[in-house]
Specification:
By secondary structure, the chain is of the alpha/beta class. It folds into three domains: about 1-45 and about 90-145 and about 270-360, FAD/NAD(P)-binding domain (3-Layer(bba) Sandwich); about 150-265, FAD/NAD(P)-binding domain; about 370-485, FAD/NAD-linked reductase, C-terminal dimerisation domain (Enolase-like, domain 1), CATH 3.30.390. Helices cover about 30% and strands about 25% of the residues. The protein has helices at about 15-25, 40-45, 45-65, 70, 80-90, 95-105, 165-170, 185-195, 215-225, 320-340, 355-360, 380-385, 400-405, 440-445, 450-455, 465-475; strands at about 1-10, 30-35, 110, 115, 120-125, 130-140, 145-150, 175-180, 200-205, 230-235, 235-240, 250, 255-260, 260-265, 270, 310, 365, 370-375, 390-395, 410-420, 425-430. The strands form five sheets. Strands 1, 2, 3, 4, 5, 6 and 16 form a seven-stranded mixed sheet that branches. The protein has a five-stranded antiparallel sheet with strand order 17-18-21-20-19, sandwiched between helices. Strands 10-9-8-14 form a four-stranded parallel sheet. This is NAD(P)/FAD-dependent oxidoreductase.
């Protein structure tokens, strides 16, 4: 069977949905191919369930941090109610609603495994039915996502390890959980399960959250220990197995062991390109797909002469975050439509059809204890990139809005400023409920707002956003001597700890 359509999208997660939606809204005929649940990893096994698992315990901790409400909290967390709420938010792992949305906007769904079969051709393998070949008149967009990596640790694969899917879809939480890894998934799931009252042990080969400023990871280590979790930094796992009692035995390089009921592996991601048929268009299976800023695949057969193949989301390895993938998808869907319909194409930096922000303005939220958020450069990354930087740090506990939010509030904020351009190029916030501070920083970076102009963006009193005023004061008022402090110079109100480490672990946010 063979059909010709305008656009074929392989992968029905949030990224693929957005590509399809933008192309269909322009009037193109779009077929979306998905073999699992429409809505993808984020909706059923990552972002949505993980945040619902985290929220109840976070709300309980917040209540206990305020005199008056603290005295009213007399019970413990109802884990069964948390899991029931999680089930509601993942629609009991049914995609009926998502499929209904596709139908409502005129996007056709083909259930099955989609793989490339040459230029503009996608074969859909369907259970119990003859395969269908879709031929795209204009474009194919692949957004298959990524899978967790199980590292080659002796005995690990045979020990029935959990991945993030197991952790977020749990029905009966174990009594003891060991977590191998130090990235976002490790930090968030350690926070969630420790919040359940479970015995959690985190085994991180290096620091936690090493793609952020060092103080973020340090704060999460302290926060997890405050929840009763054990965090072992610098621990290398040399072997994993199960004993006769079906307990997991994790052996470390110092000869010590950790005993748990389950072990969660959170050590990175790999692209779902092994069975995608990329070899049929000159690409290497099992590897990340290279793209330009319009998500056009570089090196694919026929793509240079007449653009047709796009790779969007995790699979291009630019930013393994749902919101960044959807950002790419909006630009890509619009670009496919513009090229198909002969409309103007805008591929200049910050143009309508490019994902420029993937390079310098990627916001990330880690819903750990405490929350850690960042966007843009860390201080160290900016210096490695050859930028002359000025750094301002503020203790959030000194901000009146934070003190009202929670008694004895603890947190920290950092701005990284390009000393020559006079604009913010990085920001990090650590503390309770700091996620809501991130968009302002993202706007400042994307808009290249001069720091001197930010003095006129007045934060409301009394809110945690007053941290912005404190950060500007740390940098120095416009025209004051402090504004002339060069990179490498240090004052009491500038950062004094070592440069951050930004090399990520390739791990997608849970």
């Amino acid at each position: 069977m063979e059909r010709e359509v305008d656009v074929v999208v392989v992968g029905g997660g949030p990224v693929g949905e957005n590509v399809a939606d933008r192309a269909r809204a322009a009037g193109l005929e779009v077929v979306l191919v998905e073999h699992q649940l429409v809505g993808g990893e984020c909706s059923y096994w990552a972002c949505v369930p993980s945040k619902t698992l985290l929220r109840s315990a976070a709300a309980l901790r917040a209540a206990k941090r305020v005199a008056g409400s603290a005295e009213a909290v007399t019970g413990t967390l109802d884990v069964a109610a948390v899991l029931k709420r999680r089930d509601y938010w993942v629609s009991d792992w049914s995609d009926t609603g998502a499929v209904g949305w596709l139908e409502s906007v005129g996007i056709e769904l083909e259930r099955g495994h989609g793989r490339l079969a040459g230029e503009r051709r996608v074969i859909v393998g369907r259970d119990g039915t003859e395969p269908l070949t879709l031929v795209a008149r204009h474009a194919v967009a692949v957004s298959p996502g990524s899978d967790p990596v199980i590292p080659p640790i002796p005995g690990l694969a045979g020990a029935r390890p959990w991945t993030s899917r197991d952790a977020t879809s749990v029905r009966h939480p174990p009594r003891r959980l060991a977590i191998i890894g130090g990235g976002v998934v490790a930090a968030e799931m350690a926070t969630a399960y420790a919040g359940f009252g479970i015995e959690v042990t985190v085994l991180a080969r290096s620091s936690l959250l090493r793609n952020m400023e060092p103080f973020a990871g340090d704060a999460v280590v302290a926060g997890l220990r405050g929840l009763g979790a054990s965090v072992r930094v610098g621990a290398s796992v040399t072997g994993v197995g199960r004993n006769d009692a079906d307990e997991v035995i994790v052996t470390l390089d110092d000869g010590s062991t950790v005993i748990a009921d389950e072990v969660l592996v959170a050590t990175g991601r790999r692209p779902r390109t092994t069975a995608l048929g990329v070899e049929s268009v000159g690409l290497e299976p099992g590897t990340w797909i290279d793209v330009d800023d319009t998500m056009l695949v570089t090196g694919a057969t026929g793509n240079a002469e007449r653009p047709w193949l796009y790779a969007v989301g995790d699979v291009n390895h630019r930013a393994l975050l749902t919101h960044q993938g959807k950002y790419q998808a909006r630009a890509t869907g619009d670009l496919i439509a513009a090229r198909a319909l002969g409309r103007p194409v805008d591929t200049a930096p910050w143009g309508a059809h490019v994902a420029t922000a993937d390079h310098s303005a990627v916001p990330e939220v880690v819903f750990a204890e405490p929350e850690c958020v960042s966007v843009g450069f860390t201080a160290a990354a900016a210096e490695r990139a050859g930028r002359s930087v000025r750094v301002a740090d503020v203790e959030l506990g000194a901000v009146s809005g934070a003190g009202i939010l929670a008694d004895d509030y603890e947190g920290r904020a950092r701005l990284v400023v390009d000393a020559h351009a006079g604009t913010v190029i990085g920001a990090t916030f650590v503390g309770q409920d700091v996620a809501e501070l991130l968009q302002a920083a993202t706007i400042a970076i994307v808009g290249e707002v001069p720091v001197d102009r930010l003095w006129h963006a007045v934060p409301a009193f009394p809110t945690v956003s007053e941290a912005w005023l404190r950060l500007l004061e740390a940098l120095g008022r416009p025209g004051s001597p402090a504004t002339q402090v060069a990179s490498g110079d240090r004052r009491d109100d500038l950062a004094t700890d070592g440069p951050g480490v930004t090399a990520g672990d390739g791990e997608a946010a849970a």
